[in-house]
Amino acid sequence: MNDRDIITRRGAEFCAALNRQDIDVLSGLRAEDCIDIPPNRPAIRGLPAIQAFWREGFAVAETRFVMSPEQLDIDGDTAVDRFRWTAESAPISGGESTRDEGICLWAWRREKDGAWRIAQAIWNSDLPQGQTVWTTAPSSAASTLAAEDREALRDLIERRWVAAGLSRDWGKMTAMVTEDVEYFPPDQPSFIGKAALQAFFDQFPPMVRFTQSFGAVEGNANRAVARCRFAFALDVAGETVENTGKFVCSFEKQASGEWLVKYCSFNFDRPMPSRS
Q1: End-to-end CA distance of the chain
Q2: Are both 178 and 99 inside the same structural domain?
Q3: Spatial separation of the C-alpha atoms in residues 118 and 35, rounded to whole Å
Q4: Are residues 121 and 154 in the same domain?
Q5: Cα–chain-centroid distance for residue 44?
C-alpha cells in the first residue's frame, strides 16, 4: 500500500472514529504535539488539550461527520490533505438537529515509527457564525440525489440487507458491497474487503430479529452517504440478547447503475455483553 492509500485510509478511520466518539482511535491518528485551529476560538495545542476539546463536544451533541476529499499532496514525510466536510449535530439534551459544512486542511507527518499522523488541522464553516442550517428545512446545499436512487438505497438498507442478514446469506450480503469495502466496527480494528466482511459476519450468532431504518441521506448521481439505525435480537446459546444502534454508510454507484456499500461505520446504543 502506497503513502496515498495509507493516508486516505487513515483519514477515513478518523472520520469513522469521530462519528462513534472513539477518543482512543482518534488519539492514535494524531501526533503528540498536534495543533488544532478551529474557528472562533484560540488554537488548541497538544494531544491532551485536543482530547479535552473532543470530550467537550461529545458531551454536548452527537455529530455525523462526512468528508469529501479534494486534494492530497505528498512530499517526503509531509502531506497536505484538503477536503470538504459536512456535519449534522443532534443535541444530547434534545431539540432540533443542525447542519453545517465547510473546508478543512490537515497536515500529515510521517513519524519515527513510520506511521502517518495528523500534526495540524485548520477548518472553517461556509456559513456565517451562528447561522447553521436546521435539518428540518431544506438547505441551499441540498443533495442532488435523484428520487429513484434514494429509493434504491432505502431498499438496499431496509429490505435486502435485512433479508440477507436474517437468512445468513453472506453471498447476497457481500454482493451489496464493493470489492474494497471498508468496515469500521466498534471495539475492534477496521478491515477491508469482502472476505474480511464475511469472516466478520460468520462470528455473529443467529439473529432472531433484525431491522434497519433508512435515515438522512445526501449525495449525487455517483456517491451517497446515509445515516441509519438498526435493532436486533441474537440467539446466544439459547439466550436472547437485544440491542440497537446507528450507522453511517457511504455508497458508490457502479457502471451497471447498482449502488454498493463502500464504507460503513456503526456502534451500539449500549455495550454488548462480553462473550466467553
Answers
A1: 35
A2: no
A3: 9
A4: no
A5: 24
CB 105 within 8 A of CB 82: yes
Q: What angle do CA 171, 174, 221 make, to 5 degrees?
A: 135
Rounded mean pLDDT of 158-167? 94
What pTM was computed for the model? 0.53
pLDDT digits (tens, 9 = 90+) for 234-261: 988 888 999 888 888 899 999 999 999 9
CB atoms within 10 A of CB 185: 17
> What CATH number does residue 153 fall under?
3.10.450.50
Domain boundary among the residues 95, 112, 134 is at 134
Q: Grid coordinates standing for 266?
A: 456503526
pLDDT interval class at 128 (50, 70, 90):
low
Same structural domain, 183 and 128: no
Q: Identify whether the C-beta of residue 263 lies closer than 8 Å to the C-beta of residue 250.
A: yes
Q: Can you give the pLDDT at residue 10?
A: 95
Residue 142 lies in a domain: no
Q: What angle do CA 174, 195, 245 make, to 5 degrees?
A: 60
Grouping H, G, I as helix, E, B as strand and the rest as coil, residue 105 is strand
Lowest mean pLDDT among 27-36, 123-132, 190-199: 123-132
Sole residue written with cell 453511517: 248
d(CA 244, CA 268): 6
Q: Is residue 86 part of a domain?
A: yes
Helices (H) and strands (E) in the chain, counts: 7, 13
Rounded Cα distance between 85 and 110, Å, is: 24
C-alpha cell read off for 51? 482530547
Specify the pLDDT at position 95.
67
Domain extent for 98: 3-134
